[in-house]
């Protein structure tokens, strides 16, 4: 709405400018309404151009400008090479030069806009120039890490520092999940969007939406790996396969599930724990409780203590595909 107010004011100023020219230079514009119409038309043309290029990002514009500049230099070199010294007609020579500059300028713009963004990494900076004594730490998030949500806790607690980078194609995938007909997928997508909004509102955290894309890559995983390599960013994910792809291509990554698994406390037989028995176990007389990290503890002779706080002693541990199951015996129960 604010943009259209600015455009309306611009049109009014252009119209008044055309009217002023008709009054100050009547030899150029004889009637005042002609001047007002010319001013309004000029303003409308600029607004139309603005509307047509609204999908262009600053990076795309910079790439197009750079390509046009390179094309103009090539056209100038061809013009100065002496190939057209035998063209005597000035008008023909002018048309040849015009064709050269328009043709090479167009080809340069198209090639620049079709090129990958990392090709311009040295000329068109990504975020900003980082001080030499403080390298910029970029944290590239994929869809699974955003939906998981634990990355927000790590950032807010200060365990991770850096600029969070979310590619536009990941944001699009997250939006599609949030609009899914499956209620579970829809809930996961909306949780991911809420997590991003939470990070953007944080005064301590900087979040960047990256416009880079790789049209030749059909999958999101391939785009993420290439973008991480181009930016020198660390990729955060919960996808095991994506982590292995990144590892094979020498891209630094962090799997949040592996990180959480390595941070679990080591439990040894003989240790004493305090936990609440929340339900009955599978076998007779057993009760089940959980540690703070989600580890399941099966307590013998604790069926009658469901809902109570007990002290237990670890007897043995069983490693399964889903994690570790602890077997314990009751040592003391709270009154």
Identify the strand order in the major beta sheet. Answer: 3-2-1-4-5
Encode the helix/strand succession as letters. Answer: HHHHEHHEHHEHEHEHEEEEE
What shape does the CA trace take? elongated
Percentage beta strand: 15-25%
Count of DSSP E strands? Answer: 10
Query: Briefly, what CATH class of the largest domain?
Result: Alpha Beta
Low-confidence stretches: 122-134
Q: Assembly state here? A: single chain
C-alpha-based Rg, rounded: 32 Å
Helices and strands: which structural class?
alpha/beta
User: What share of the residues lie within helices?
Assistant: 40-55%
CATH fold group of the largest domain: Rossmann fold
How does the major sheet shape up?
Answer: 5 strands, parallel
Number of domains: 3
By DSSP (H or I, 4+ residues per run), the number of helices equals: 11
End-to-end separation in angstroms reads 65 Å
Q: Give the overall pLDDT as a whole number.
A: 81
Known CATH architecture of the largest domain: 3-Layer(aba) Sandwich
Looking at this structure, what is the CATH superfamily of the largest domain? 5'-nuclease
């Amino acid at each position: 709405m604010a943009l259209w107010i600015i455009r309306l004011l611009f049109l009014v100023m252009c119209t008044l400018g055309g009217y002023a020219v008709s009054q100050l230079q009547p030899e150029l514009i004889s009637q005042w309404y002609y001047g007002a119409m010319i001013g309004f038309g000029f303003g409308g043309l600029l607004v139309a151009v603005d509307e047509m290029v609204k999908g262009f990002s600053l990076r795309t514009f910079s790439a197009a400008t750079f390509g046009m500049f390179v094309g103009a230099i090539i056209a100038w070199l061809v013009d100065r090479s002496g190939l057209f010294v035998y063209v005597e007609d000035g008008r023909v020579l002018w048309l040849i030069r015009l064709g050269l500059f328009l043709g090479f300028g167009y080809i340069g713009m198209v090639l620049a806009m079709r090129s990958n963004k990392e090709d311009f990494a040295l000329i068109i900076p990504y975020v900003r120039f980082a001080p030499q004594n403080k390298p910029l730490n970029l944290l590239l998030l994929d869809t699974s890490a955003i939906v998981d949500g634990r990355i927000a806790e790590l950032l807010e607690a200060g365990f991770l520092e850096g600029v969070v980078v979310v590619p536009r194609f990941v944001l699009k995938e997250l939006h599609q999940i949030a609009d899914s007909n499956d209620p579970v997928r829809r809930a996961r997508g909306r949780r991911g969007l809420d997590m991003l909004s939470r990070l953007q509102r944080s005064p301590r955290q900087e979040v960047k939406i990256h416009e880079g894309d790789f049209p030749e890559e059909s999958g999101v995983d391939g785009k993420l790996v290439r973008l991480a390599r181009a930016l020198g960013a660390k990729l955060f994910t919960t996808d095991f396969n994506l982590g292995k792809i990144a590892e094979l291509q020498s891209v630094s990554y962090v799997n949040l599930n592996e990180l959480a698994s390595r941070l679990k406390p080591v439990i040894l037989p003989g240790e004493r724990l305090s936990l609440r028995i929340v339900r009955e176990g599978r076998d007779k007389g057993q009760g089940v409780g959980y540690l703070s990290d989600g580890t399941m503890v099966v307590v013998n002779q604790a069926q009658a203590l469901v809902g109570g706080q007990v002290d237990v002693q670890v007897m043995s541990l069983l490693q399964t595909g889903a994690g570790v199951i602890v077997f314990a015996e009751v040592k003391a129960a709270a009154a």
